[in-house]
Amino acid sequence: MEAADEFMKYRSPLVSRYASKEMAFNFSDRKKFTTWRKLWIYLAKAEKALGLPITDAQILEMESHADSIDFAMAAEEERKLRHDVMAHVHTFAHCCPTAAPIIHLGATSCYVGDNTDLIMLRDGFDVLLPKLARVIDRLANFAEKYADLPTLGFTHYQPAQLTTVGKRACLWLQDLAMDMRNLQRARDDLRFRGVKGTTGTQASFLQLFQGDHDKVEELDRMVTEMAGFKRAYLVTGQTYSRKVDVDCLSTLASLGATVHKICTDIRLLANLKEIEEPFEKEQIGSSAMPYKRNPMRAERCCSLARHLVALVADPLQTASVQWLERTLDDSANRRISLPESFLTADIILSTLQNITEGLVVYPKVIERHIRHELPFMATENIIMAMVKAGGNRQDCHEKIRVLSQEAAAVVKQEGGDNDLLARVQRDSYFAPILGQLDAVLDPKTFIGRAPQQVSRFLSEEVRPLLEPYKAKMDVKIELEL
């Protein structure tokens, strides 16, 4: 019956449909409330070590019940008390009667609430960073493989000078590398709220330790260390500054923008049939058109990336309206925006890894598109060859101009192929360079230093960035949906 009831209420597709188990767990009630209990244990241990009358038996009792949460009791307590932290204090105290008097001693709700949020943010980044590293690794391998494969460049989505498939991938990689550095920096900048009291002044702890400032500072340091942080914020109000949330979610929104651009490019190239994302043997592209191979993974990434970019507005507005030491209108918003940002980033990175592990390139299609446009792009080279053969630059320019317009009319008005090269070959004026035309029109003479740029960029900027994650590179992504 319970399983059936699950389909009678809304379930976020971020968890029910897409997110990885590790990220879903990171923002789960189980992790949240067991972390609260760990924080109460850290606090009791530190207070005992600094001389407060707390016994080993009380701490042992708390530790033995750290994971055994009666969620039904906690829910009932919250219905009565209308206070989530006190509901869990009472629930913890119920199974720890000896320790009950010292649970949450001197603390405010934000001691467990905010510190747990910071732990979840830190651990969320620790889930994302290896995933982003794997995406960069797969795309770097792709860029290396196709470093010298010429392809049409596009500006304004109009054919432009040639580039290479690998060089284009490096444009995507450059943005992802920036995101990698931004996420790592945001993760490393996180500090612990620590033990600060109701308005951040530590007054309750100063009273507990009878005015001993050194012990209060040592308490803060000890608890911060137990929680796995190197530093705590030196000043807070009741909460840590909500600018911290802005910083974290801004980096994720920036990642969303990157992924949207990459996946939009893949969708455009799929339309040209030059590149395709992986397509399963039994996958259906359209219920009505059996022949279709829709880029649904890239489309999913774009869809979710827009949500990720939009979510940064929440912490921006929340930070701007926090009055004085704190107002509670941050709470309900943060319960949604913080988890959803990390869950969404997790989903798009998993999906993008799947895409980059199976990107399919069609060199013959790319070559056909180049042949269609290259004669126009080669006109300057043809003029230079004629001048070297003794021709007049202006006369040659006029000849090429007329032939180009005739060829363009065939392409645009008649729907025919670009026959500029054939027109040049038939015109006796160009007889002195007919033997050079194949060399003049070799696509690899139009890609400049693209292959060399790829090689240097990968070796100097991309591969070193991945070194810390080498042990986590072998994980492959199989999408369930």
Observed structural traits:
481 residues, mainly alpha, Fumarase C, Chain A, domain 2, Ribonucleotide Reductase Protein R1, domain 1, two-stranded antiparallel ribbon, 21 helices, 4% strand, elongated, Adenylosuccinate lyase, N6-(1,2-dicarboxyethyl)AMP AMP-lyase (fumarate-forming) activity, purine biosynthesis, EC 4.3.2.2
CATH class of the largest domain: Mainly Alpha
CATH superfamily of the largest domain: Fumarase/aspartase (Central domain)
Oligomer: single chain
**Radius of gyration in whole Å, from Cα?**
31 Å
Could you say what the CATH topology of the largest domain is called?
A: Fumarase C, Chain A, domain 2
Number of E-type strands: 4
Looking at the overall shape, the CATH architecture of the largest domain is Up-down Bundle
Apparent shape: elongated
Could you say which structural class the secondary elements and strand pairing correspond to?
mainly alpha
Count of individual domains: 3
What is the mean pLDDT?
92
Strand order, sheet with most strands: 1-2
Distance between the termini: 26 Å
Q: What share of the residues lie within helices?
A: 55-70%
Element order, helices and strands? HHHHHHHHEEHHHHEHHHEHHHHHH
Helix segment tally: 21
Low-pLDDT runs: none
The biggest beta sheet reads: 2 strands, antiparallel
GO cellular component, one term: cytosol
Family: Belongs to the lyase 1 family. Adenylosuccinate lyase subfamily.
Keywords: Lyase, Purine biosynthesis
Domain Adenylosuccinate lyase C-terminal: 374-458
